[in-house]
Amino acid sequence: MQGESVCSLPLFVLCEGRRPSLTSSGGSQNFAETLPTEMSERIFGELDTESLCSASQTCRLWNHIIEQSQQLWRQQCLLVRAVCHREVDRDRRDGFSWKVTLVRNYTRSCVKADWLRGRYSDVQSADQLLGRTMVPLDPETWGEILQAELDR
């Protein structure tokens, strides 16, 4: 078996005359009811932050699996840390869980990334920012944003 690759995609059961579904022969329509929790976590781990939060609202079982998995929240939080490393490190140092750290910093990371990419480089007045989500940013972040503007 050396050299053979193992497929990590979900297995679809094809039933004659029916649509493919993630189901067992028992007829359950919820993959999380039939798979070990670790496999469900692995599937949920492929979601982005917004999709993960939506999935947690799908049913009680999905909510339980997602809410109890520190690894899922850690994975998402490390993506946010790529943009907001000081904030994430500070929250973790202060004892916040991965989920709380993510919730506290997700919007900030989106706003900061937009500023650093130059999305707001041509803003002429505050009216142009109406309807856009803004959050308080620390002085170091404003320094990064100003430097990025100078470098453009």
Automatic annotation (TrEMBL):
SMART domains associated with the record: FBOX (SM00256)
A Pfam family recorded for this sequence: F-box-like
Domain F-box residue range list: 29-76
InterPro entries on file: F-box-like_dom_sf (IPR036047), F-box_dom (IPR001810)
SUPFAM superfamilies tied to this protein: F-box domain
Record protein name field: F-box only protein 48
Organism: Austrofundulus limnaeus (Annual killifish)
